[in-house]
Amino acid sequence: MDIAFLIESAVKVLIVFGFVLAGVPLVVWMERKVIGHMQDRIGPQRVGPFGLLQTIADGMKLFFKEDLVPAGADRVVFIMAPALPVITAFLALCVIPFGDTVNVFGRQVPLQVTDVNIAILWILGTTSMGVYGIVLGGWASNSKYPLLGGLRSSAQMISYELAQGISLVSVILMTGTLSLAAIVRQQEHLWFIVPQFFAFVIYILCGIAETNRAPFDLAEAETELVAGFHTEYSSMKFALYFLAEYANMMVVSGIAISVFFGGWHGPVLPPVVWFLIKLSLFLFFYVWLRATFPRLRYDQLMAFGWKVLLPASLLNLAVTAVVLALQGAK
Amino acid sequence: MTEAILFSLFSITAVFFAVNVIFRRNAVHCALHLVGVLLSISGLFVLLNAQFIAAIQILVYAGAIMVLFLFVVMLLNVRGESPLLTPGAAKGFGFFFAALAFVELLWVALSGGGSEGTARPPAALPPGFGSPAEIGRILYSTWLFPFEVTSILLLIAVIGAVVLAKRKFA
Amino acid sequence: MQETVIPLLAYQILAAMLFTIGIVGVLVRRSALVIFMSIELMLNAVNLSFVAFSKQNGQMDGQIFVFFVMSVAAAEVAVGLAILVAIFRSRETANVDDVHLLKG
Predict the structure, then answer these.
(1) CB spacing of B132 vs A122 below 8 angstroms
(2) What ipTM was predicted for this assembly?
(3) Per the CB < 8 Å rule, is C67 touching B56?
(4) Tens-digit pLDDT profile for residues B21-69
(5) I need a surface site. Which of A26, A95, A166, A172 has the fewest CB within 10 A?
């Protein structure tokens, strides 16, 4: 482990960190503008050009709000809970390749914070650890509605984890490797969405449910259960939950891009630019869904996850396995 | 060198969290400290060339089983019991028996554990040791029968849990 | 850079310590949930011992055994917690010292 490797890793970590911190306000702005235009209104337009600084203004407002801890709440857990989804989102972002190997000062630097050879397992593990932030936030508030919202939300997340994992396993059967960098490299000629379209559909639906976004956002919507698990959170802790939600959206999009959409492959532009274009398209798709679909009721949501997506992903896995066996694959 | 540092770090956190599991009053705190133990042990697994098992430990144990524990703790709404430990002679017996067990385990470890024990130098690891490919290869060839039996066991557990959790109204 | 190999004895002692702490938890705590957690702690100590020996002998069988221990632990936790919920829903207490009569 020489010093150049340490510097290279530190720089990559800082780049990813900075990208998320700078990108989330942009995504929030885009969401408000896009939803506004889809609802035939303009959205934020006064703060900065085209309302670009609106999110910064909101962040500053949140910063100056009173930061309260409810009476009877468990102080340590209450303060620690919002950090957990952020930590797991950043950990998952570490293994997503956002570009091909570049040549910096004579070193070949892969544009990925670290290439773990069990990357898919790592991502599934960190996303399942992300449930803790929700369930602990709901419990630590010492109040009925957050507790119910937190339990519902985390039950939703663990239900959709299964179908998500199995849909990814169908792709792993085709690639024979768990490493995201290798999966991206194998998509040079054919993106995996073509043979594994159903796995992609299942994965993206599960991803939306995992991040508690519309139309699966019953547990945290403002009109349901007050505001779900983050009712009692104010100021920067609420901002941290907010950041975690958008960082998790980026994680799900990043994985979908790497596994199904060819990662950073693309004809003319440099690979990083292609990754960013695909990421923007995915985030736009997320926002488009929020603007378009009504919310699913909780029992509809759970029935959909267990009775539709899980059998569908298992069926997809079985069909993939049979086809690969018939083809005489290794 | 890094291995020694990481081992010391993970083992100290594992023991610290484990002691906290049994001595905290609030059951949710105990569960969170148990998650800390599981993560420390997962780190130790990585040091022992068991990458797949380490990932499965996080995925299954820390990510699913402990969430289930937390659900039940929150649903039962357990307030801290008082006094914390079993009163009277049972407490003394408990500590004594545990100390006895520890001495016995140490004795077995230090005496080399017979012919299969620590006396031999560590064997050379074949390439791909601990990788998912290797686990899959062995799991579906040598250990196929226990694997299938485990799937039946899990089915039985699911059915049992559903039956037990139903409200028994007449 | 020279490689320091952590001796197997270190892992054995660590596993013994964790196992003992688990035994203390089972024998001395009165809350059924914490007793359950101490049992999980004991299982994890055993898993650590298995994996350490697996590396010592260069054979993967120890890790496969840990795989099975984890599946059985998952099944046991699910059923055990369901039993706990069923018992303590009717008795309103999570204290094992109070559950000493078979009549429910």
Answers:
(1) no
(2) 0.90
(3) yes
(4) 988 888 889 999 999 999 999 999 999 989 999 999 999 999 999 999 9
(5) A26
pLDDT score of B90: 79
pLDDT at B60: 92
Chain A nearest-CA distance from B144, in A, is 18
Question: Most A CBs within 10 Å: which of B59, B134, B135, B158, as the mutation test of the A interface?
Answer: B59
**Nearest one of A119, A126, A122 to A85, comparing CA atoms:** A126
Q: Which residues of C touch B103 (CB under 8 A)?
A: none
* Chain A CA closest to residue B51: A118
Nearest partner of A251 among A8, A20, A14, judged by Cα: A20
Residue A114 is given by DSSP the state -
| Angle between the N-to-C axes of helices A3-38 and A54-64, in degrees from 0 to 180, rounded to the nearest 10 | 100
pLDDT of residue C1: 41
CB atoms within 10 A of CB A305: 25
Answer whether C32's CB lies under 8 Å from C84's CB.
yes
pLDDT at B101 over 80: yes
Contact between A84 and A154 under an 8 Å Cβ cutoff? The reply is: no
Alpha helices by DSSP H, C1-102: 8-28, 32-57, 61-91
Q: For residue A103, what pLDDT is reported?
A: 75
A159 interface with B at CB cutoff 8 Å: no
Classify each residue of C58-91 as buried b or exposed e, where b means 16 or more C-beta atoms within 10 Å of its C-beta: ebbebbbbbbbebbebbbbbbbbbbebbbbbeee
User: What is the H or E stretch that residue A108 is in?
Assistant: strand A107-111
**Is residue A296 pLDDT above 80, yes or no?**
yes
- Least confident segment among A21-30, A149-158, B123-132: B123-132
To test the contact with chain A by mutation, choose from B2, B26, B28 the residue with the greatest count of A C-beta atoms within 10 A, namely B28
User: Which of C9, C28, C90 is the best mutation test for B, with the most CBs of B within 10 A?
Assistant: C28
Whether residues C38 and B22 touch (CB distance < 8 A) is answered with yes
The predicted-structure confidence for C6-64, as pLDDT tens digits, reads as follows 888 899 999 999 999 999 999 988 888 899 999 999 999 999 999 999 998 888 899 99
CATH architecture of the domain with range C8-93: Orthogonal Bundle (1.10)
CB contact under 8 A, B28 and A74: yes
Cβ-defined contact of B81 to C5 (cutoff 8 Å): no
pLDDT at A168: 94
Whether B46 contacts chain A with CB within 8 A = no
β-strand A107-111 against A99-104: which pairing, if any?
Answer: antiparallel
